[in-house]
Amino acid sequence: MKALRALRTLSSKPRKTPLNPIFFHRFYAAQPQEDDSSHTPSLSDSENGSDSVFDSTHYDIPTISSDSKPKIPQKLTWNTKYRSKADELIDQKKKPDDLIFKNSSLAKKLLEAAVCLPSDDENEEDEEEVVKEEDQKALSVGIIGAPNAGKSALTNYMVGTKVAAVSRKTNTTTHEVLGVMTKGDTQICFFDTPGLTLSNRGCPYKDFKVRVESAWSSVNLYDVLIVIFDVHRHLTRPDARVIGLIKRMGALAHPIQKRVLCMNKVDLVEKKKDLLTVAEQFKDLPGYERHFMISGLKGSGVKDLTQYLMDQAVKRSWEEDPFILTEEVMKNISLEVVRERLLDHVHQEIPYGIEHRLMDWKELRDGSLRIEQHLITPKLSQRKILVGKKGCKIGRIGMEANEELRSIFKRDVHLILQVEL
Fold it and tell me: Which BP terms does GO give this entry (predicted)?
């Protein structure tokens, strides 16, 4: 795990933000950046005026009240004093009818009184129950596969919240993303990697080649490696490159790493017997200890996969605090959410060429967040497409991203997106 942690770019002082025991890191610069002095706005930068800027404060968005936080179910306990008295009344025999009625009524009230609700302090203790370091178990899991195999969707489902951008477009994941799931005494770190290919040839951008090389270099660093592929596409449009990747990873058993093969998107396959045919095709590869049929989007088969991973965990201290979301992680989340919306609404090669910067991050006095991001396009024509007519496209991207960030952070968010050339 030390080799994995060397990838981190977390440098800011952690700010404690309570959340579910789930969070993630995205490994690329999320620190607020100074405006590049070499970037001098041309006249075309101001052609559309305010149309190129989305500011959520210009919209009527209801604020999130403190009461909107999810409530934790309270555990009921018995007050033994009332309970013992009730038992005495219930066990009495041969009493007159009216006395039996009175005693039964009294017993009922005593039983109701015996049910005690725990105090708020007790709830907090239950919520943040600390597992002793000597009892902790951990596991690192790498998720690899061809582009658009469903790696990010599976990661999101495993950790229970969105930690990586998911899109129909290939090469959605540009950097390694970490999602953490903590259950009981076990913590599993899922590493969602960029799409793998057997060759770098044909990559349209230089940074794609860097991503592929980076993904290959980290393959052997995990305790368990999940090799995932789109079984629906394999049945309808088989790709020799994907088959080659599966066979290469399963050709030899790794001496210290366990590997499993996951047939993803089974929910899209109409004839389930076809899945058995695919399983038969890869069953003799010695490198895979187990085969799973799953749907990373719908959750089919994921429970069995999760249990298998829990069973593989080893005695080791946890790498992450399950109850704290650091400021650096929150910055990465904001970048990831906006990126997903870009991929949803801007097509062709345009979103891949956009330089995405976090320029400002402030926690205001009322507890809300002010987030400013700049989207820099290499061409004026691309800038116009991203902005849209009278700012409609960047406005839609901003509104959807702002709403999702509010949902994730459970607080008001003021998102500002500025499109530059």
Answer: ribosomal small subunit assembly
Instruction: Please tell me the distance from the alpha carbon of residue 27 to that of residue 211, in angstroms, as a whole number.
Output: 12
Q: Which of 156, 217, 150 is CA-nearest to residue 181? A: 156
The Cα-based distances of 309 to 61, 140, 181, 249, 361 in angstroms read 42, 9, 11, 19, 37
Q: What is the pLDDT along the chain (421 residues), one digit of tens a residue?
A: 444 444 343 334 444 444 444 444 433 344 555 555 444 444 444 454 667 777 777 776 767 655 544 444 455 555 565 666 666 666 665 455 666 666 666 666 655 555 555 555 444 444 556 888 899 999 999 998 888 888 888 888 888 766 665 544 444 445 567 888 899 999 999 988 876 665 555 444 445 556 566 667 778 889 999 999 999 999 999 989 889 989 988 887 788 899 999 999 999 998 888 999 999 999 889 999 999 999 988 888 999 999 999 999 999 999 877 766 678 778 888 888 888 888 888 877 777 778 888 999 999 999 899 999 999 988 888 888 888 888 888 899 999 999 989 888 888 999 999 988 8
307, 286, 304, 308: which is closest to 295 by C-alpha?
Answer: 304
pTM score above 0.70: no
DSSP 8-state class, residue 57: G
State whether residue 420 is helix, strand or coil.
strand
Query: What are the beta bridge partners of residue 224?
Result: 141, 258
Q: How far is CA 201 from CA 7, 120, 194, 208, in A?
A: 26, 60, 16, 10
Of 124, 123, 80, 84, the residue nearest 107 (C-alpha): 84
Q: Is residue 71 part of a domain?
A: no
Q: What is the CA radius of gyration of the chain?
A: 27
183 phi/psi in degrees, rounded to 5: -130, 120
- Do 342 and 235 lie in one domain? The reply is no
Same domain, 56 and 88: no
Q: What range defines the domain where residue 340 resides?
A: 28-64+325-420
* Spatial distance between the Cα atoms of 232 and 109, rounded to a whole number of angstroms: 60
Counted domains in the chain? 3
Residue 405: give its domain's CATH number.
3.30.300.20
Nearest one of 53, 267, 23 to 155, comparing CA atoms: 23
Within this chain, do residues 301 and 336 fall inside the same structural domain, yes or no?
A: no
User: Could you tell me if 310 and 334 lie in one domain?
Assistant: no
Closest CA relative to residue 173, chosen from 152, 191, 190, 154: 152
Pair of tokens at residue 389: 């007519």
